[in-house]
Specification:
The protein is of the alpha/beta class. It is about 35% helix and about 20% strand. It is built from 13 helices and 14 strands. The strands form 2 sheets. An 8-stranded mixed sheet has the order 3-4-2-1-5-6-7-8, with helices on both faces. It has a 6-stranded parallel sheet with strand order 11-10-9-12-13-14, sandwiched between helices. Helix 1 packs across helix 13, helix 3 crosses helix 4 and helix 6 packs across helix 10. The mean pLDDT is about 95.
């Protein structure tokens, strides 16, 4: 099976973490029978003055990325974007011929390319969506032209999946497709699993890039109240965070920024933490919730539709009131958790998600 993944999001440079979960889906797809997976992306780069095709292999997946110059009018950028994808397509056809299946990862903008290829070449495609813009409280899905084009691309796809039921419901509400299914994100169950005994502390953990929707000020409020009970409790923050965002917090004693961690290091941090704090304004799936629970670590989160599936697995959802979160941290289900970590790890394991992706990539004959 020749699988061509079109990624709308891809790291712009070595320090960027944009769309790494797309890599995990591509790696899971390599577990399908006789699968040859190419993950292709086109991205504007301030460091490139010409079109450059970069090819590499990561964990069994061929990564083909065209970097093209940034700048100029929106029309010029759109022309460069489609020209980059034409280079990727001709390179792919020369190497493999016609793909068995095309999977668009995030509809906007790579879905426009897939739709055009279907119209011109007859290449069928499916979509696997991660974007929070379709959620009722999401941001960015606003322009009328974008909405019209999104519906055209979505309705022309063979199948459309979202990484959670909440995201699927949001896409359905926007009329993007009637052929919808859930294909969740992947967690690395080689890294994220419990250890016995678990070396737990009173330190709290938050994993994010400190975007406004992550409500980091509320995390700080909970931690500072928690320190009234446990004065030695630190707040660990893991994630790729811009230096400019860190300046406002440098004077807080006990606040530890850990930067972006490898899966193994992050798993060790989950296991040592007392609990993960996730007071987000919205989530499409929350990979950090799955990772933490798979390590046996309790999670306190805001009340969000995308997190409803976790409630039977050890997640505690609470209104955003500091006193309620302190009581939650002191509750029996957090202080002495009974989390079926193995079940969480299996539910989102690469092998299980690959089976669901096979349904997404299996097309009916015309």
């Amino acid at each position: 099976m020749k699988l061509l993944f079109l990624a709308s999001w891809y790291p712009e440079h070595a320090e960027s973490r944009n769309g790494l979960f797309i890599w995990q889906h591509a790696q899971a797809a390599t577990l399908l029978p006789d699968a040859q997976v190419v993950l292709a992306a086109a991205t504007a780069s301030e460091e490139h003055t010409t079109f450059t095709l970069e090819q590499s292999v990561k964990n069994g997946v061929a990564h083909w990325v065209v970097r093209y110059p940034t700048g100029g009018s929106p029309l010029v950028q759109a022309w460069r974007y489609f020209r980059a994808w034409r280079l990727l397509r001709t390179t792919y056809v020369h190497a493999f011929g016609k793909p068995s299946a095309v999977l668009v990862n995030v509809l906007w903008r790579a879905g426009l390319v897939a739709w055009w290829w279907k119209y011109r070449l007859g290449w069928k495609y499916s979509i696997l969506e991660h974007w929070s813009g379709y959620l009722p409280n999401g941001q960015g899905f606003e322009g009328s032209l974008q909405k019209v084009l999104t519906r055209i691309v979505g309705r022309s796809a063979e199948k459309v999946a979202g990484v959670s039921q909440a995201l699927v419901d949001g896409m359905r509400g926007h009329g993007i497709s009637s052929r919808l299914m859930v294909v969740p994100n992947v967690i690395d169950n080689q890294a994220f699993h419990p250890l016995h005994p678990n070396p737990r502390s009173h330190h709290l953990l938050h994993v994010s890039n400190l975007a406004p929707e992550k409500n980091f000020d509320f995390v700080l409020s909970v931690w500072q109240s928690w320190r009234n009970i446990h004065p030695d409790a630190q707040l660990w923050v893991a994630g790729a965070i811009p230096e400019s965002r860190l300046l406002a917090y440098q004077q807080l004693e006990g606040l530890v920024f850990m930067d972006f961690l490898s899966p193994q290091s992050l798993a060790d941090t989950y296991r040592k933490a007392y609990a993960l704090l996730l007071p987000s304004a919205f989530e499409t799936f929350s990979i950090v919730t799955a990772e933490a629970l798979a390590c046996g670590t309790p999670v306190l989160a805001s009340e969000l539709p995308a997190l409803a599936a976790w409630l039977s697995m050890g997640l505690v959802c609470l209104p955003l009131q500091t006193d309620l979160w302190i009581r939650g941290l002191q509750s029996e289900e957090v202080s002495h958790p009974h989390i079926d970590a193995a079940a969480v790890a299996q539910l989102f394991s690469p092998s299980r998600v690959a089976q669901q992706m096979q349904q997404l990539l299996t097309y009916e004959r015309s």
